[in-house]
Amino acid sequence: MRRLRISPLLFRRIHKWVGLILGLQFVLWTLSGSMMALLDMEAVGGHAMPAAQNFPLSGETEWVPPAVVARRDAVAGLTLRNLAGRPVYELSTTNGVRLVDAGTGAPVAVDARIARAVAAAANHSSVRAVAFLAEPNLEAREHAGAMWRVDFADAANSSAYVSAETGRFLVMRGDSWRTWDFFWMLHNMDYLNRTSFNHPLIIFVAFGVLWLSGTGFYLLFKSFRRGDFRWITRPKPSQPVRQQSV
Q1: What digits encode the pLDDT tens for the residues 171-208?
Q2: Alpha-carbon distance values, 244 to 46, 177, 238, 241 (Å)
């Protein structure tokens, strides 16, 4: 059986191909970082909860007593708030969040109509489509649970996300953010979740860069000989003295 001989030539071949692969990733890091820096951060970051969502409740005072709506479950918290112009109790129970109409005591389900009204408080453009999501997609990955996606017919192709459980506005996304998020994916190399710098692929690349540096240092001494630097220490030939004619 022929033994594998580790030689500078073998290291040089591996070093060449590993350097090419990692070099492409360095290009992607440079490109993605530059694009994220060049994008308008006002457009990219325009996805927070709008101030219009915090408008006060109406002047109605005949609420159903909280003790009446909370008697069915073990309630850990209760909030009286406005849901698309409708006063509701939001009850945090052991079985999750429950919404109850504060005026009638009837349970409230967050349907497409309510989701559309909540999203309209953040964007006054016409609604193009409303879709139910059983779980978050990449655009709303910071949030959990079922939600509604409300698409608007505006220049940014905006999409608002509304919780199907609480009816609260979650986040707004547009084309600028989607472009930024694509380059963010290339930058952190998290091609599935786009959330973490601490994942196996980027750790593997880090060790690859470390190995590339080590082998490059090794090949530095194997690629040069002392004779290659004689031109530095070699004395310059003396220039002949030119005689001037009288």
Answers
A1: 999 999 999 999 999 888 888 888 877 878 888 888 88
A2: 82, 78, 18, 9
